């Protein structure tokens, strides 16, 4: 019993140390322009961005929303490398007035948080090519057109996804544009797995 207790306490202390180390390893930021290469970053304030956030092919970035909101105005996040967006406090959100919130050309992992587009004609998550990989775990997505538009490999685990798109929608140029909530395009190369997610749409779900 004493041996078991000693091992348990040792493991507990190791876990606490690792947790504190992980927390301290994230750089606190108040602007997306502070993301300047591979590493872990944590928001400490709400952000309004007037420039695209671009992750280069050589970078691996972890961004913790930390309960805060990113308003991208008419901008997007463009991922060419490895990008993880997580929200440890469950109230974090990213919104854009652009047609596309995140364009993924490589590897994108979403763990929690809320994501929203407000403009007709694009997608919250555009998985943009045959080699791109997208995984979404337990996120809340509110789309003006597509929530997920997949041309590569996509895995969706839990979460809620809704599109308000309908066949009466028009783009800024006046063209008719409507979408299902989630679309898997460029078959047979594109693949998608959806596990226990709630998907709804005015025009259609999947």
Summarize the SSE layout with pairings.
Layout lengths: L1 H24 L1 E3 L9 E5 L3 E2 L4 E3 L4 E5 L4 E3 L5 E3 L2 E5 L6 E4 L3 E5 L2 E5 L2 E4 L5 E5 L5 E5 L2 E4 L2 E5 L2 E5 L2 E4 L18 E3 L6 E5 L2 E4 L5
Parallel strand pairs: 1-2, 2-5, 3-6, 4-7, 5-8, 6-9, 7-10, 8-11, 9-12, 10-13, 11-14, 12-15, 13-16, 14-17, 15-18, 16-19, 17-20, 18-21
Question: What does this protein structure show overall?
Answer:
This protein has 206 residues and is mainly beta. The protein is built from 1 helix and 21 strands. The chain has an 8-stranded parallel sheet with strand order 1-2-5-8-11-14-17-20, with no helix packed on it. A 7-stranded parallel sheet has the order 3-6-9-12-15-18-21, with no helix packed on it. It is globular and about 45 Å long.
Quick overview of this protein structure:
The protein has 206 residues and is mainly beta. Helix content is 12%, strand content 42%. The longest helix has 24 residues, at 2-25.
Q: What is the string of SSEs from the N terminus onward?
A: HEEEEEEEEEEEEEEEEEEEEE
Strand content range: 35-45%
Instruction: Indicate the percent of residues in helices.
Output: 10-25%
What is the makeup of the main sheet?
8 strands, parallel
Enumerate the strands of the largest sheet in spatial order, edge to edge or round the barrel: 1-2-5-8-11-14-17-20
